[in-house]
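Figure 2 data, in text form.
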Amino acid sequence: MLLGFVILYLVVSIGIGIYAATKVHNAKDYISAGRSLPIYIVMAMVFATWFGAETVLGIPATFLEKDLGGLISDPFGASLCLVLFGVFFARKLYRMNLLTIGDFYRERYDRKVEVVTGIAIALSYLGWVSAQVTALGLVFNVLSDGVITQQQGILIGAAVVLMYTLYGGMWSVALTTFFQMIIIVIGLIYIAFLISDLTGGIAPVIEHAANNAKFRFWPQMSAVAMIAFLSGLLTMGFGSIPQQDVFQRANSSRNENVAVWGTVLGGIAYFLFAAVPLYMAYSANLIDPTLAARWLADDSQKLLPELVKGHLPLFAQVIFYGALLSVIMSTASGTLLAPSVTISENVLKDFITRRKHLSDHKLLVMTRWVVAVFTVVVTLYALWALERETGIHKMVENAYKVTLVLAFVPLVAGLYWRRATTRGAHWAIALGLATWIPLEIWLPDGDGFMPPQFAGFLMAILGMLAGSLTSRPGHHAQHAASRPQG
């Protein structure tokens, strides 16, 4: 019966996505919903897209295994990203009337920077989208009592998300995520109240966590520990700023004020509501210590679903799994569309138009094909990561290393430093990449003085400074003139 309700929910989501496809008449509708969305839709998209599988399953698992400091990248870094984007980037980028964030690198620098950053941005989504379809596979596995393997669940989940994202594009993401945000908020709050009845209230759970030092946040007072801590914050906090999904939500707004406040409020809501799954998962230590010990030893990501399935009535289970599917699917659809759009607009489009004219309709068709192909790649990556037993939270953490190293510095310098030049962008990318890749190969677990991506980020800053300051004076004037004005 529970699986039947879940299937019904999936059918409704697909129906909404198909309806959204009727609003798509050109590539701009597909990519940015015609820049017509009100603040409540934009806020809902930001919140629901970022409130993904890692928030409900991955973050609580990390908290149970470590402590509050283990969450520095997400939700702390993720929330920081959204607030920073809203305050410092949304207004300037919205005024440029771009189709993708990759277009900024072409207009501010050149085609080479656009292609390299576009590929980097697209690659960064592999881990994030794979985390969502991996979570869908986990849900189907739990609901079927193991009849559906997690690998089979991944295939089913990827197919469902593809079905309602492929044709509706950003309109599909907008309508489905608004519906899904309502399910997420109401559903998780309701489940949290039921769980609090089993624990005797919220206070005993907080007291138990405090007694077990779970609220320890700051790292050891050593240079290596502090750098690793700061790197965890900045990898997500800075690395996820030059991303198509957050740009796409701001760019779909009906005006620049909606772009700013929709992003900021969505980020604040995400940070505050991320505490709910933490509370629910940790409550298992009081409700059923044997269950908690078992799944902490086996797979801590399954603890919360198993707790709900074993200790709450059927109606509550339906609500929880409906909310969980809303969480996963809202993130999966948005993060599936974003890299596909980036590949189409910033990598493939110019290559094709050198040989023949690419009409708006053909761009739309090409983007849909890329969505389908990227879904296949994501599914294969998710299956591979599952074999390596990579956790959902870790998959999301790893996603933003490439954009922190390659895309963040050229974006900030291009918007806020008049002397930033194309040579500076080239040097930033080259030095960042040349530093990060070897360290990532030789020190994959960050066993050196600093994490590889943080070293690459610092070298990217050095490359931007050195390249721009050694450019001939004419380059400074040229790029200062083309700099977007606030």
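Caption note: The chain is about 80% helix and 0% strand.
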